[in-house]
Amino acid sequence: MKKLQTLLAIAVGGVLLGMGLVATAQPVKPGYATVVRVEGVASYSLDGGATKIPLVAGKYLEAGATIYTGDASVVDVILGRAVQFPQAASGPQRVSYAVDAPVRGYASYRPAAEQNAVRVLANSTLAIDKLSTTSSGADTVGDTELDLKQGSIYASVKKLSPTAEYLVKTPTGIAGVRGTELFLSLNPDGTIKDLAVYHTSNNAGLVLAVTFPNGTTQTYTIKDGEIWTSGNPVPSPISPDLHRFLREVFPILRTPFYQLISFNPDHTIVLESTDF
């Protein structure tokens, strides 16, 4: 993996140097992955899978956590600063607290402000290896490293500052992401099945470094509307059907807006709309 990261740094380094920007040292703070949607059965672990805890909407995870999804399950997370959901107060018996704090109340889901988001699909394992935030003027940037060990994800990453780094690792490859909407799927043996790029900032493309069974490593630049598939020597245009599907998925994923649930003293429900 170190070799892959070195190759990836060489491939994208020229772009950053060409921009002529000098980063100003800023305090680095831990980032969080806030779980904003869970469908089906999902869990997380802080010890590499030895102990798994049921995952619920409202939980936030730090670097070192791993997310697991079961059959027909979906988990959406927002990456960056912790999203402070209000704690649910005492309410009807059908509303219960999660077994692990801190967890916030949660009610429903619809689009609003853009965020860095990841959708973990069924039968997937996604580790959060690194997640930090750094204040940079009016913006907040940070370094993110995700490790997809099995399964599939959609990722929507807003345009990053040149000082920020966002990597998606797999057992046999690593992708450098800079303002990208992508779909990444692995084969059962952990090799990359395909990586589709729907959109990148300024059509800059996504840089992918792949190590093959014979030990050789190759880097690819995947442009908007292209897909890299195992067994093909170069990226190719995505199919019209896949393009239409991604066009529907990403506006929802990249603009999550959630209504949060709390209660009045008489136990009537109050829905609080919170724009992330």
Structure description:
Helix content is 12%, strand content 45%. The chain has 276 residues and is mainly β. The chain has one domain (2-274). Strands 1, 3, 4, 6, 10, 11, 12, 14, 15, 18 and 19 form an 11-stranded mixed beta sheet that branches. The two termini are 34 Å apart. Mean pLDDT is 77; it is low at 10-24, 86-98, 105-113, 257-263 and 267-276.
Provide the descriptors you would attach to this structure in a database record.
276 residues; mainly beta; 11-stranded mixed beta sheet; 9-stranded antiparallel beta sheet; 2 helices; 23 strands; disordered C terminus
Summarize the structure.
This protein has 276 residues and is mainly beta. The protein is built from 2 helices and 23 strands.
